[in-house]
Amino acid sequence: MSRITHIFSDLRQANKVGLIPFITAGDPHPDVTVACMHALVRGGANIIELGVPFSDPMADGPIIQRASERALAHGMNLALVLDLVAQFREQDASTPVVLMGYANPIERMGVTHFIKRAQQVGVDGVLVVDYPFEEARAFGEQLRQHDIDPICLLAPTSSDIRIVDLATVASGYVYYVSLRGVTGSAALDISSVDERVRLIKRKIDLPIAVGFGIRDAQTAQAIGQYADAVVMGSRLVQLLEETPHDQVVQSLQNFTMNIRVALDSGRNK
């Protein structure tokens, strides 16, 4: 059983919603990324999505775009991101880490080398935003051969056929993009997300994590009524952007803790 599967099993038994925060590796500076990851866990995160900075993050809004730019300016690259995961694992052997990013850095490193190194440092899942489905299938098979879950995206526009096809590729959990557009954009229509998640659950026997557009405790709590996990990214990255360097770790922990409390109280209503 993978760490991700184990986490969702524990969450189901405890009747809890998973909390999956996203931060960009190397932002606001590489010297605080690992400390921020530990702060997220202390705040109640169940899985960490760690963004791999990329120069053309087309699925991301301006907040996460700026985070990638800052990280790249500090010299961050995929090899260093993997080194940060290795450092995190020195103190935390149980919290799943999912790398989220784009195909270009992986292709540049070499898919086989990347997957072997990811397994070595303790990566649990990989989500690549821009692999075409056919390439995602082959990539996912390679990941699973090295005990890494391929995390797949579904959108509001995904057809029933695509949902069924994706079920043959994905493992760990499915990330449902709750709105059309880029990360951090627009406001959620909770009822339409609810309806869509229910449909996906009828076709895929995996936990469903909902992300894009979740910016506060109230929205997270509402999504948590029917999703297996909520993903929060842009709001956390914005917090790191706005907070003085010496306060980012504690601020991140406090914010995450507030979301955790909201999720737990919402599920217990």
Task: Sum up the structure in keywords.
269 residues, alpha/beta, TIM Barrel, 9-stranded parallel beta sheet, 12 helices, globular
Structure description:
With 269 residues, this protein is an alpha/beta fold. The chain has one domain: TIM Barrel (Alpha-Beta Barrel), CATH 3.20.20. Helices cover 51% and strands 14% of the residues. It contains 12 helices and 9 strands. Strands 5-4-3-2-1-9-8-7-6 form a 9-stranded parallel sheet. The longest helix has 20 residues, at 248-267. It is globular. Residues 181-185 have low confidence and may be disordered.
**Amount of beta strand:** 5-15%
CATH superfamily: Aldolase class I
* Helical segment count: 12
N-to-C order of helices and strands: HEHEHHEHHEHEEHEHEHEHH
What gross morphology would you assign? globular
- Examine the coordinates and then state which fold CATH places here, giving the name of the CATH topology: TIM Barrel
Helix coverage percent = 40-55%
